[in-house]
Amino acid sequence: MGSTRRGGRANRLMAAGVATAAALAVLTAPAAGARPLGTEGTGRAGVAQPDGRRPDLDRGSVERTGRTGSGREDAHWAVKDTGAPGIRFRGLAAVDRHTAWLAGTGGTVLRTTDGGASWRNVSPPAAAGLEFRDVTASGARGAVVLAVGEGEASRVYRTDDGGTTWTESFRNADPRAFYDCLAFFDRRHGLAVSDPVDGRFRILSTADGGRSWHVLPADGMPPALDGEAGFAASGQCLVTSGPRDVWLATGGGAHARVLHSADRGLTWTAAGTPVPAGDPAKGVFALAFRDRTHGIAVGGDYRPGSPSPEAAAVTADGGRTWRPATTAPPAYRSAVAWLAHSRAAALAVGPTGTDLSTDGGRSWRTVDTGSYDTVTCAPDHSCWAAGEQGRAARLER
């Protein structure tokens, strides 16, 4: 029995390696083949704050499917018609190549179970005035969405039936709090993070799959820097890996930091990063960890046309130290994702394009110039992206 289990695991690892290699083969076409396809357009995020902590990225191109200049069809973002051109989707949960959830402006939640060929509007009732910025999903039927904003605008909704019905499981009653992101360790345990209250980031916790929430004690959280906050830009300012580890990305202060907890948010340590900071519009916007030690941070300055040198960094020690990417993305990036089962391949997206790394985030090159706010890759090797003007796309060949 032991040898059978080892053989099965080896076969699964070999299959995963073959699939990842195939994905890399089509993703690493010459950069000259990357080009915007379609027409220019703009969209609005709706809740940008005057201090710049809520990025409003009103630019980018609308691209359709395309081919690289190599003469053969390569991997590309195939845009899926969501039927919601006026919505900006910053929340994205990719279950697999068939199923994905989107969360966006106007209290909008969409779901597809056929690879994006059709989308069902499963928005919670009476939510039109809310700004959904994050969503996590356990499958085609279970999802938790986060609405962001000051005071009661920050809320959590939960569904177990594919969005047919929703339960509001949390409504923020503190006018000083502004929740940015949520993340789950497993189907039961999850956290949400608010910008600092009384000088420290506030952590909300659930142990029943989002049915109920409570604020964790603040004494395990290091003091926040002056002006420090999280960015509700892509649902990736709070990320987990494994059963207990969680990381929090920050900006707006003198230094862009990443905070880490190894006990589900009870105690935290902070580490500086080389990502630009010192301004309300600058910092680490998104994190991705492929295990509890190897992670990538992306961000920069979200203001259109502003330079973002050193807009990416990597860690190999669980976030204790961060090193700048040797070749960073050319501009601000709002989201990042590892390709499933890969130790080297990752995608980063932002309003000016998509970048690919094949060396664990140390170097990046642009492979597409369309505008996206968020990106997620599922365990079956599929990757999805979403953004302004109702845009959703799946990586296809």
UniProtKB/TrEMBL annotation:
Keyword terms of this UniProt record: Signal
Biased composition (Basic and acidic residues): 51-74
InterPro entries, sorted: WD40/YVTN_repeat-like_dom_sf
Range of residues in the leader sequence: 1-34
Region named Disordered: 34-74
Keyword 4Fe-4S: no
PANTHER family assigned to the protein according to its UniProt record, in alphabetical order: PHOTOSYSTEM II STABILITY/ASSEMBLY FACTOR HCF136, CHLOROPLASTIC (PTHR47199), PHOTOSYSTEM II STABILITY_ASSEMBLY FACTOR HCF136, CHLOROPLASTIC (PTHR47199:SF2)
Stated name of the protein: Oxidoreductase
